[in-house]
Automatic annotation (TrEMBL):
Residues 62-131 form the Ig-like domain. It comes from Hucho hucho. This is Ig-like domain-containing protein. InterPro entries: Ig-like_dom, Ig-like_dom_sf, Ig-like_fold, Ig_CD22, Ig_sub. It comes from the Eukaryota.
Length: 260
């Protein structure tokens, strides 16, 4: 909203139209649904309606303020009596139930965002909100190093796109300096694949410097068949995961046709 500026219907924003759904009946139901929330959606939203009268334009003040946040696990306390907090930058509405995970397995469900227990520095912990379990917080781990792949071996068709999905953990007191994928070739050890000439637009690192290490390869070639390894470098150490085997194959029906 800007003074003196005619407000625009956000449903006409083509860039976000597929994420917005107005469930209204022009009588008394005026629900707005926003899916796939992003931090940029944080704003104040007003509902406006226009009648058939000359000055029949109305806006519901003061509007609804939406704050979009993420989950983060914060660790407090001493060595023996740590407390984990599933933290957000704003208070979530509807009194959510928090789900706690230890090494990927559910260990607690509670309306409290706190979790106190006997913690091992070698275990990783994360949290989520019930009914939104796919939106995990990044895992925290005091003294663990790990790279976990969704699939250790992948077979995909030539010309298709494949995502090699993985996550990684490291001691919480370290800071990620560099994260990349490589193929261990003679003379090309630890070379970032996404920066190799010829791989632009073909190999893309989708991960971050927190916990996600997904690699995407588009328009697969037979020559892409190899063992791929994820490597990250922190402020104090270097760590590589075990290799993921990718096999690129041709179209079998096309081969069968040629044989006939």
């Amino acid at each position: 909203m800007e003074t003196g500026v005619e407000p625009e219907d956000i449903g006409q924003d083509l860039e976000n139209a597929d994420r917005l759904e107005y469930d209204g009946d022009k009588k008394n139901g005026h629900t707005l649904k926003i899916t796939d929330l992003r931090e940029s959606d944080s704003a104040t939203y007003w509902f406006r309606f226009i009648t058939d009268q000359t000055r029949g334009r109305y806006i519901g003040n003061p509007g609804v303020t939406l704050s979009v946040t993420g989950l983060q696990v914060k660790v407090t306390g001493g060595h023996q009596d740590k407390t984990l907090t599933c933290s957000t930058t704003c208070t979530l509405t509807d009194n959510p139930t928090y789900i706690w995970y230890k090494n990927g397995t559910i260990v607690k469900e509670d309306t409290s965002s706190l979790y106190s227990d006997s913690f091992s520095d070698a275990d990783s912990y994360s949290c989520a909100v019930k009914d939104q379990e796919d939106l995990h917080s990044p895992a925290v781990c005091q003294k663990c190093w790990s790279v976990t792949y969704t699939h250790q071996s992948i077979c995909a068709l030539k010309g298709s796109t494949v995502d090699i999905s993985c996550s990684y953990t490291y001691p919480s007191y370290h800071e990620i300096k560099q994260a990349f994928w490589y193929i261990k070739w003679s003379g090309m050890d630890h070379e970032d694949l996404s920066s190799v000439p010829g791989n632009e637009g073909h190999i893309e690192y989708l991960g971050d410097k927190k916990s996600d290490c997904t690699l995407r390869i588009t328009d697969l070639r037979l020559s892409d068949s190899a063992g791929y390894r994820f490597r990250f470098i922190t402020s104090g150490a270097k760590f590589s995961g075990s290799p993921v085997s990718l096999t690129v194959t041709g179209n079998l029906s096309h081969i069968s046709h040629l044989l006939l």
